[in-house]
Specification:
alpha/beta; 13 strands; 2 domains; two-stranded antiparallel sheet; globular; Spore Coat Polysaccharide Biosynthesis Protein SpsA, Chain A; nine-stranded mixed β-sheet
Length: 245
């Protein structure tokens, strides 16, 4: 399995913190947000290659961070060449750009660089072994306002993902779509097909609707625990405070 970390967004809602600094490297609890997931995959026996894709504005910052934090690890850094938000490729565009560069032909684990979730990567990968299809994570919330107009919403039938809606005003389900995904290698060409079909490229969850009905699609339930999408300065500050308390 290969792992791709998406870190090419311009994080406009977190400015000025992210004007020239990537959201994934903002510190929480003594280390960068992205380190919480990177630490779980960097020496994982099932993951043979890791790459992180970012934009041109943040490329040097990520390069220095990788050299300092993971000096002896083989982590490829991909600069998508984009310097302005209005020219961004979108998360799915960045996936395709990276796959064309890397020429990977293996199951693909795709991870957001700005997500904190209590479920371990080991539990997710172990679960995938018995649910071979396109899989994601879902977190059940008691507060539907967390989803409304902000986050993706997953509609489940047991472990099957039957529908996915991006940022609905009225969430049809209490399950937040967590931006972690596994695409079996035989489905990788379908990501290109999705782009060619005219599907939106910004939110990676949008592609899940394309896969539903074409291949088996599942959602791993995070269960009791937490999920944090670091989308605004207010959320970030509250998260920092919670880790210090």
């Amino acid at each position: 399995m290969k792992a791709l970390i998406l870190a090419a967004g311009f994080c406009t809602r977190l400015q000025p913190l992210t004007t020239n600094f990537p959201k994934g490297l903002l510190p929480v609890g003594g280390k960068a947000i992205v380190e919480y997931v990177m630490d779980q995959i960097v020496d994982h026996p099932k993951i043979t290659d890791i790459a992180l894709v970012t934009n041109h504005r943040y490329s040097t910052t990520f390069s220095l961070w990788l050299q300092k934090t993971y000096p002896h690890k083989k982590i490829q850094l991909i600069d998508n060449g984009i310097s302005q938000s209005e020219n961004r490729l979108g998360a799915i565009g960045d996936m395709l750009f990276s796959l064309e560069k890397l020429r990977w032909d293996d199951d693909l684990l795709v991870l957001s660089s700005d997500t904190l979730v209590s479920a371990t990567m080991q539990s997710f990968l172990t679960w995938y072994e018995t649910h071979h299809g396109v899989v994601t994570m879902a977190y059940k919330t008691d507060d539907l306002t967390r989803i409304s107009k902000k986050l993706g919403c997953a509609i489940l039938d047991q472990e099957k993902l039957v529908s996915f809606v991006e940022k609905p005003e009225h969430p049809p389900s209490p399950y937040i779509g967590v931006p972690y995904y596994i695409f079996p290698k035989e489905t990788l060409p379908m990501i290109r097909d999705y782009k060619n079909s005219g599907g939106p490229l910004d939110a990676p969850g949008s592609i899940l609707s394309y896969f539903i009905g074409k291949v088996p699609t599942y959602a791993f339930d995070v269960g009791v625990g937490y999920y944090h999408d670091v989308g605004t300065i207010e959320i970030y500050n509250a998260l920092v405070d919670s880790f210090h308390s």
